[in-house]
Design goal:
This protein is α+β, with helices and mostly antiparallel strands and 194 residues long. The protein is 44% helix and 16% strand. The chain contains 6 helices and 5 strands. The strands form 2 sheets. A 3-stranded antiparallel β-sheet has the order 2-4-3. A two-stranded parallel ribbon has the order 1-5. α2 (19-27) crosses α4 (45-57) and α3 (34-41) crosses α4. It is elongated.
């Protein structure tokens, strides 16, 4: 089971957005059968089986075990990931594009950049998984409290300068066999957990 899986297929996104199916995915962090799930979610085994087949058809759950139970075979399934992210690629015709509104101080531009990040990293994970290769990535996440809006602006300016300096130092357009990497740095107010 993966920690996070990216859903790129529109049909798979539609299937997992159903509230019952989303609950079944959550319940299947630990393997379970239609019978055990039915008791937990308050549905009949037949209804649970119906939803499980839809999830399985889109690769969101996988078979762990089959075991005989009286006159039928009980199928034990589990979710293919502990959590899922729907890639903007699932909405390809309307996915955000940072190039459409490149106002670097706009929250909507930041959201478009973040959506591109989800789409790109999701595609890279899919490709690396198929090729059975590791994917080289790096991320920094933290929180900072500013005393004032002026301090925040000064920090953003200084951070931008430091990043531009590092990019100038290490970027080599003519490097034979070199591979371009995208760098994304974002600053936004923290959201309080409820």
């Amino acid at each position: 089971m993966f920690e996070v899986a990216v859903i790129e297929d529109p049909a798979a996104a539609e299937v997992c957005l159903d509230p019952v199916r989303a609950r079944l995915l959550a319940e299947l962090a630990e393997p379970g059968s239609a019978t055990t799930l039915a008791a937990r979610v308050g549905l009949t085994r037949q209804k649970v089986n119906y939803h499980l087949r839809a999830l399985e058809a889109h690769g969101l759950v996988e078979l762990v075990q089959e075991r005989p139970r009286g006159n039928f075979t009980e199928r034990v399934l589990r979710a293919t990931a502990a959590s899922y992210v729907i890639s903007p690629a699932a909405l390809a015709p309307v996915q955000p594009d940072p190039a459409r509104a490149p106002d670097h101080l706009s929250a909507r531009w930041l959201l478009a950049v973040a959506a591109r990040l989800v789409r790109d990293v999701g595609a890279l994970i899919t490709g690396a998984t198929k090729a059975r290769k590791r994917l080289a990535t790096f991320a920094v996440d933290g929180e900072i409290r500013f005393a004032s809006a002026a301090d925040r602006a000064a920090f953003a300016e200084e951070l931008g300068g430091a990043v531009r300096s590092l990019v100038a130092k290490y970027h080599d357009e003519s490097a034979e066999g070199g591979r371009p990497h995208r760098i994304v740095i974002a600053l936004h107010p923290s959201v309080k957990e409820s």
